[in-house]
Design brief:
37% of the residues lie in helices and 23% in strands. It has 125 residues and is of the alpha+beta class. The chain has a single domain, classed as 2-Layer Sandwich (Subtilisin Inhibitor), CATH 3.30.350.10.
Length: 125
């Protein structure tokens, strides 16, 4: 019986934690100012993914959602986002950045540093 009480308390908290990412994914798939963002390493075959919803409220699994939404809003699209340039090594380790949802976007960068230098918070997850 003592185990049931903590489970009853934890269940609503878990449900709320899972609801935001689910909503973000649904909004991104429905094209409602939301995105599913992916970065795929061509040499490493590693892929990471985040969801991002910018309106009506900022939500999703993206750790820098506010900054990413601001960058997209200021530029008008992910394709037009320009970040502060930084010095990057001349190492060829290509990555592909992809967005589905409000805007479909795909671009290949010579390495992760170049991606972060050009797109900043949008793909920083």
């Amino acid at each position: 019986m003592n185990r049931i009480v903590p489970a009853l308390v934890a269940a609503p908290v878990l449900a709320l934690a899972l609801a935001v990412p689910a909503h973000a994914a649904e909004a991104a798939q429905a094209g409602e100012n939301g995105y599913i963002l992916r970065v795929h390493g061509l040499a490493s075959a590693e892929t990471r993914e985040a969801t991002l919803v910018c309106e009506p409220v900022v939500a999703g699994t993206h750790p820098r959602a506010e900054e990413a939404c601001e960058a997209i809003a200021e530029a008008g699209s992910i394709a037009k986002v320009e970040s502060e340039e930084q010095a990057c090594p001349f190492v060829y380790d290509p990555v592909v950045a992809v967005a589905y949802g409000t805007e479909n976007y795909r671009e290949e960068f010579s390495n992760e540093c170049v991606l972060m230098s050009e797109k900043g918070a949008v793909f920083d997850f």
